[in-house]
What does this fold into?
Amino acid sequence: MTAISVKVNGRTYKNEVESRTLLVHYLREQLNLTGTHIGCDTSQCGSCVVLINGQSVKSCTTLAVQCDGADITTIEGLSKDGKLHPLQEGFWECHGLQCGYCTPGMIMAAVDLLQQNPNPTDDEVRHGLEGNLCRCTGYHNIVRAVQYAAAKMREA
Amino acid sequence: MTATKMVGQALKRREDPRLITGQGNFIDDIKLTGMLHCVVLRSPYAHATIVSIDTSKAAAHPGVAAVFTGKDMLDINPLPCAWAAGGVTNNVNTPRALAVDTVHFVGEPIAVVVADDRFIARDAADLVEVEYVPLPVVVDAKKATQAGAPQLHENAPNNIVMEWVCGNKAKAEAAFASAEVSVKEEIINQRLLPTPMETRGSIARYEQSTGEFTLWCTTQAPHVERLLLTAFVFGIPETKLRVIAPNVGGGFGQKIFCYNDMAFTMWIARKIGRPVKFVEDRSENYKYSTHGRDHITEAELCGTKDGMITGLRVDTFANLGGYLSTIAPGIPTTLYGRIMTGVYKIPNAYVSVRGVYTNTAMVDAYRGAGRPEASYVIERMVDRFAVELGMDPAEVRRKNFLQPSDFPYDNGLGLLPYDSGNYEPALDKALANAGYADFRKQQAEARKQGKYLGIGLSSYVEICGVAPSAWIGLPGEGFGAGLFESANVRVHLTGKVVVTTGSLPHGQGIETTFAQIVADELGIPYDDVVIEHSDTAGTPFGYGTYGSRSLAVGGTALYKSVAKVREKAKKLAAHLLEANPDDIVFEDGKAFVKGSPDQAKSFADIALQASVAYNLPEGMEPFLDETTYYDPPNCTFPFGTHIAIVEIDPNTGNVELKRYIGVDDCGNQINPLVVQGQLHGGIAQGVAQALYEHAVYDDNGQLVSGTLMDYAVPTAAMLPTYELDHTVTPSPVNPMGVKGAGEAGTIGSAQAVMNAVIDALSPFGVKHMQMPATSERVWKAIHNK
It folds into this structure.
């Protein structure tokens, strides 16, 4: 077991983890932050995307021990002061989710996408979210949701 | 003044706030006190005898509570098959919770390790030692029926589950004998992996003192799971099991069925007296949870030189896997053969189907379930016929369409009559939206520049709201139950309404759309209505959500319960207003004597009076609380026309889906935003079948496409923007005139894309191609390889 200290959604946690524990399991099993999901075992689906030091990362491909000292944001930490993040709002407004299972990862990946490209074309949104699979929406409304958020964030 | 109607509004969903903030509660999010974790050891062989299993090392591993094998669980029965194909003998073999003597496909469960956490259990599973004697393997449904093929089950000679036919063989033969033109193709509808983004799982808890189980599981049908697990698997009263579906992360059919982990988690929870959890990982989901499609079909269509279709013959081998899943035989029969003539008036049709066992995972309903396969066959063959005649495929379709005056229409294949339809306006709208009139010119221009454009049409009809129990049930279609739905509407003291329903959402937005219906019908605020579901302890019996039936059947049950509440409220209002009930009108949430709206009783007033019961009319029971079990007189038959436009790069064989145009008619729409969402997702799954997805077994029965690295679920960059439009032909079957939209997109789409691909390749002499149209397959077709 290895001791780690991580900041997750603004709060610092100190835990002992096995060296093989994946970040996603640490978040879900030890911190009870179950908003981050697991949809595959080969890092294809992106249901587990979180932000590590501001960058989107698949938390199933990251060991918890690698995150010692890191600042992590999960879907639970995205809204501020009870106000939805523009992406959360966009997904709701544009029917960007159905079953909602891929949604947390999709939103977290989109946060990073819009950080890097605040004014993307539809095509850039589609390519930017290639690491995230959705089986319900056919992506049409996910693209609209991201564009809704992009427009809103540009205005802000 | 009339309040704004909620029905018809593109309301954003009330399901969403919890799901966009990480507050959803999916199966793997649930933790119970003292809960242990299960990991399953699975067969690496597709067909083998189990000689011995040694669990001692695994059981001794630190942190392991117990290890169980199939022999430990012989006190529970195999899982039931609830739908045998109607009217014929079915040679039924179903799986046990864990295999006992023989395994029939890779991934079949052999042992369960129960430990403090899933990682310890996984480590220990590696310590279980199993000795197998491998047996010969067959994975192809056609080969499995041939002489000398490996035999899977003693009671199924030549691996045949059942042989089933519909239509009129002699008439079809006569039509072909006298036909001016006929075409014939082998059509393969490849095996697919449904791939809900959340895999499946179960958590079971057992109360020693009462003998009661609680089972949380990823299901589309909690009441059905309860029935099957108690009455058939465990032989205990239904009252001893409560089934709860938490948030379910997509189903697409795969989560309808009764699975082995439901049984073994219950069995283990009872045995060891602690709650246990099992959740599949993705490769387990791919190996063990049900697959879809997998048909090999020979199809023939004949007609006149001027494009009238006179006959259709279809012969299908349906691969059902190593055992029968819960409703497997019903899918390639009732839901496939009986809708084979599609939107056309084809007087002489005959369909024969063989269900076949092979050393592969079980195949059962996957989005569309039988109807996409049928629509694919007829729509490919109509296109093939048009090419043979040198006619415009749109005109061949138009020429053979059923006309509005033909409804209700009996297609002669043993289906209930099509309820309503008007196919030409949907076709015309789709053609106009696609710019069909100009397309051929563009296509010719593009070809001059070495670019290969293609356009493909698909005019579909499907069967939704599958119900009438007297039709679908045992004596006719062989379904071992009914298919009604239920809803209870309960009005609390303050006028707030709680609906409980046997239908349940896993993405469909039922909490939103059902509340829209109630708000309108009672004239009360939408926010005053709550929809509760997914728990057998709190909802009236219902068969569940699948087959695009929740609105047409479950929604109608709700509509009728609301109507009963309104009638009772009117009677109570008449009593309170000292008026004749016949003179009372109920509008905008108020009851008043016709012509005197000032002296009204509000819905909240009436609810309060009904609940305190100080002053009720003689003989009236307190409370506004009504339940309906609705068994409709017919299914509904949504339809539409889809058009795909593709461009093919002849150097690489790459197919680019440039545009996708759909015009769908699902009758009246409750929430257009939700309808469009359902269509988008449905179309994506059909496009995925046409271009990308294929569940491949090698000759040894290994699932080659066994992970998401190998199975091509499309990403956002692989799919287009959908250009959707609609027509509205209300269903006469139910009072809301609704039909259903959950599967239409999938049913209409694969053949539109394939027809476009084949159209693009016509300069190379290509007249037919199997799915998926991968670059390799297309390149080979271009280069005659």
Remarks:
- The beta strands of chain A are 2-8, 11-17, 49-52, 55-58, 71-73.
- The longest helix of chain A spans residues 140-155.
